[in-house]
Structures are given as C-alpha cells and as structure tokens.
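Design request, tokens follow.
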C-alpha cells in the first residue's frame, strides 16, 4: 500500500506557549504507562494518496479523545481532505496544490476558525502549547493528561520500506536517509516507547527512535472532545486552571 508524507519544516514562533512546566506542576508523578489508543478504529484518511498527514493526525486524535471521553466521533476521508484544503489551498477534486502543511498553521486555524467534523458544528481547539520532543517526561505528561500529543517527525527511508504497523526502530534499519516530514498522533506510551497512529495503523516506536526523528511536538487541549458529560476528562480532571495558564489570563 502506498503512503505519503506531508509535514513541512517546523515554524517556531516564540509566542507559542511552552506547555511542559505547567504539566510538570499539575502532574508531577508520571505514570509508567498510559495508552488511549487500544481499540480506536484508525483509518488511512487519504494519506495514501495525498500529503494530508497533519489532518489525518487531527482525525486520529479526535477519535482517540472522543472514544475515551464521550463516544467515538469518526471523521470521513472527505472531511479530512476538506480540512487540508481549508488550511493549505489543496484541491480535493484534482489533487492540485498538495504541498503539505506547517503544523502551526493547522493548529492556529483549528483554534480560530475550526475544522470539519461530523455533526452541525465545527471542531475548535481550545488551546495548545509546544513541548520539546527531547523532553520525554513532558511527552508522557501530554499523552496521559491531555489524551495525546501531535508530533512532527523526519522519516528515514527504512521506515517507509516497513510493512504498515511494524515497529519503527532506528537501530533496526540500515537506510536512514531522511525522505520527508510526517505528522503523527502520539496516543500512548510505556517504559519502552510510544504508540502512535500513522497511515491508519496503530504503531510502536522506542523512545530512542522518537528523540532521534522528532523535530516538533504539541500538547493540545480540546474541551469539545476531551471533556465528558460530568465536566471532567477521562482522568477526572477539570481543565479550568490549565486553560487559564495556557490562555495567559
């Protein structure tokens, strides 16, 4: 099966809130393992044909959050491609302008203008903050506390040659030539590594691989998808104090 990349080079905005110190204060003891991805019905979402990985990651995070907090919300491939079009100018009818996505552009659009999702309302991100990909404790906190992390990685050819779902282990491949950027939804971890969705498949990579290939990461706060009917996350926490900090109020 074919697969596409589509994450453009990171744009580091100094105004982007850095989430790690706040997460450390709110969740000082990181559980050794947490996995929100088991049983989530991930799909390819068009990423076998187009460089829409950033929006496939949005669909994967939405499915992960809602299955844990409320009840599964599954985007269609058309919705994912329409989101890609809205942010980048991609043409879903012809495939023109399939030039990939800067993750900050996606996040800011999701925050301010909203992305398509099933139902009558758009999906608005509540807030987001950057996480240093080398800070594995912060990555764990983001996954555990927020239900997942949006990460950008530089993919070597050796990983492109693997079967879908095979472990991404930097030390197990010989062709390490980078072939492009890719956005992934990181939705679980254990002491050995992380679980993430890519190309419709729940996949695993060791921590050493993640720190080798990741070049950006973001913790996302989604009141719309991550807060259940009781007004708390699946972990039982409210977002009020966290949102106050992230918004700078």
């Amino acid at each position: 099966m074919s697969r596409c990349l589509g994450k453009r080079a990171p744009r580091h905005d100094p105004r982007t809130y850095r989430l790690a110190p706040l997460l450390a204060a709110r969740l000082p003891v990181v559980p050794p393992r947490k996995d929100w991805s088991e049983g989530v019905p991930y799909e390819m979402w068009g990423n076998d044909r187009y460089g829409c990985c950033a929006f496939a990651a949005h669909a994967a995070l939405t499915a992960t959050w809602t299955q844990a907090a409320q009840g599964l919300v599954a985007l269609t491939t058309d919705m994912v491609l329409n989101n890609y079009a809205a942010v980048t100018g991609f043409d879903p009818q012809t495939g023109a302008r399939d030039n990939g996505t800067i993750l900050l552009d996606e996040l800011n659009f999701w925050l301010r203008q909203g992305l398509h999702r099933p139902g009558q309302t758009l999906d608005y991100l509540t807030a987001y903050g950057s996480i240093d990909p080398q800070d594995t404790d912060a990555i764990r906190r983001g996954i555990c506390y927020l239900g997942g992390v949006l990460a950008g990685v530089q993919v070597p050819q050796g990983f492109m040659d693997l079967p879908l779902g095979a472990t991404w282990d930097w030390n197990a491949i010989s062709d390490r030539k980078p072939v492009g950027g890719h956005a992934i939804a990181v939705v679980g971890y254990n002491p050995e590594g992380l679980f993430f969705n890519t190309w419709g498949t729940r996949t695993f990579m060791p921590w050493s691989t993640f720190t080798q290939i990741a070049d950006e990461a973001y913790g996302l706060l989604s009141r719309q998808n991550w807060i259940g009917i009781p007004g708390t996350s699946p972990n039982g926490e409210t977002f009020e104090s966290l949102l106050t900090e992230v918004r700078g109020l």
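Comment from the thread starter after seeing the answer: thanks! The longest strand covers residues 178-190.
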